[in-house]
Amino acid sequence: MPSGAKCNSYLYFTFRGEEFDTKSITAELKIQPTSVKIKQDPVPKSTSWDFRISVGEEIDLETPQERLIEKFEPKANAINSLKAKYQLETVLQFVIEIDVNPQASTPYFGLNKRALNFLNQTATEVDYDLYKADPAGIITAE
Question: pTM here?
């Protein structure tokens, strides 16, 4: 990350599978995806339908996580039906940039009972990608 840039964390809910009609996910859930990837050779290796919430430089990941759960929780039955129909998996993905500056706060979040219940009800996996970020240019190449 170039010097002077800011951390950019985000999270997203995704449907993944070999090949499926992503428009049917949109139609059934009545939610527009923020991105869709269609399986190709050599990449991507699978098709995905993603709904992303940017966190930006905020360290609070609980609030966007709650917004995401609020959006998808009422659609749990539809999610399960789509997963069964198209042999899909769902993942709640956290992409977190951690500022290497010792004075910077680190991101925080938890999985409360509501989130855990939704994840369990929809058999959704949780994945975390953590990256070091150096927006202040503290680390120098030697």
Answer: 0.84
